[in-house]
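Hypothesis: this fold can be encoded by more than one sequence.
Test: take the structure tokens below, design a sequence, compare later.
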């Protein structure tokens, strides 16, 4: 079989031509940005939200979505973040109990490094979480202290 050596020779020749051809086109180098986040084609399979998801999508107003935490529920809990935008989710706790908000992140798992978290929202407190929509998809969130009853989704598109 002489096909393989012939192909190799062609490949070497092509590489040599490509290497030499770069000299007069320095701008091509700048496009070689490595993809540090190859998984950001979209989020992995997410956990099911513990709470029934609102039928309507809550839109940001001036970059903010107001969310109330009351009676061990997030309201609203179907939140829209435009792709390549960042939205501040303002969490007002009207319960006598402490809550948290944890977004599972692109890996679809809670308690991992890519989670977006507000670790404590005390009774009567107002806390903010800014979520950047870097990859289109649906992201699930929960309250760590009431994981069986409080949850929702962030829709990035
Ligand atoms: Cu809670």
């Amino acid at each position: 079989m002489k096909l393989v050596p012939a192909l190799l020779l062609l490949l070497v020749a092509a590489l040599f031509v490509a290497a030499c051809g770069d000299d007069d086109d320095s701008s091509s180098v700048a496009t070689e940005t490595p993809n540090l986040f190859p998984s950001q084609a979209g989020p992995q399979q997410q956990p099911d939200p513990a709470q029934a998801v609102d039928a309507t999508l809550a839109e940001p107003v001036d970059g903010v979505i107001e969310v109330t935490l009351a009676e061990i529920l997030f309201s609203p809990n179907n939140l829209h973040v435009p792709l390549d935008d960042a939205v501040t989710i303002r969490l007002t706790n009207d319960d006598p109990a402490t809550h948290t908000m944890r977004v599972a992140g692109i890996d679809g798992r809670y308690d991992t490094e890519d989670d977006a978290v507000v670790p404590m929202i005390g009774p009567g407190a107002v806390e903010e979480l800014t979520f950047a929509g870097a990859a289109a998809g649906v992201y699930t969130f929960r309250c760590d202290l009431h994981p069986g009853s409080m949850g929702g989704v962030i829709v990035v598109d």
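The chain has one helix and nine strands. The radius of gyration is 23 Å.
Hypothesis status: open.
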